[in-house]
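User: Could you write out the 3D structure of this protein bound to magnesium ion? I've included everything you need below.
Assistant: Certainly. Input first, then the structure.
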Amino acid sequence: MYIEVKDACKRYKQEGREFVALDNVSLDIDKGEFICLLGPSGCGKSTLLNALAGFEKVNSGSVKIDGKEVTAPSINNITIFQNYGLLPWRNVLHNVELGLAAKNVPRSQWEEIAKKYLGLVGLSGYEKRYPRQLSGGQQQRVSIARGLAVDPDIIFMDEPFGALDAITRMKLQEDILRISREEKKTIVFVTHDIEEAVYLADRIVVMMADPGRIKSVVKVPLGAHRDRTAEDFLYVRDKIFELFNLKSESYIEYYI
Ligand SMILES: Nc1ncnc2c1ncn2[C@@H]1O[C@H](COP(=O)(O)OP(=O)(O)OP(=O)(O)O)[C@@H](O)[C@H]1O
Ligand SMILES: [Mg+2]
């Protein structure tokens, strides 16, 4: 298995009380899969993502990628957050070029690579602009281009479209889906939006809170081209919604 989480536990001390953010979480992810972590606020989505990306260590259990224990962030993987993370004093082109030095890409190739990925996210011609001269959606596209430019194995995304309006969000969802297929990346994507998860994911990891744990892992039985208004799409969305309302303390095997 490419990504392997086994009995992962993460506890925080809060006002003298121990808080369980992840309670015995186990999950396997294949290379090339698009996985959504879906659940209400506080169910441990970011904690799990951060453990996978190497930003946080679990207290017990293990998190492995390609057979190796994750102990720190790897330059082979990138993480895209909600707040874009662009450097305001660098223009778009230079923001996208940021990671290339760390990957030892020769300087002479930076511009060509950066321009290729700016094209892929629909921002050709914006190279000389600064982040303040872009809309939120455009800034997030720059951040996606910057992530893709280093040709990562895995892309971790934590509610990357959460701050965007509905229309821009849909456009970016289409783009990330197309890019994930073209570039054959493994993607782990955090969201609390059921429709977003059904639109994007091969499998949805449904989580619940207090303690943070996995309620079910559901395969989305829809093809590559998804239509939010189609009957099969709405059916799957309703089924995931029903799963949220099922009362259960333990894991549920759920098939759609
Ligand atoms: N550094 C920390 N110290 C103490 N508690 C923390 C810390 N980070 C997270 N928690 C707690 O762990 C739980 C899970 O947090 P996490 O950020 O993973 O939730 P989430 O599912 O990403 O929620 P949201 O949708 O609001 O982003 C929360 O109850 C949170 O309060
Ligand atoms: Mg979060």
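The chain is about 35% helix and 25% strand.
User: Perfect, thank you.
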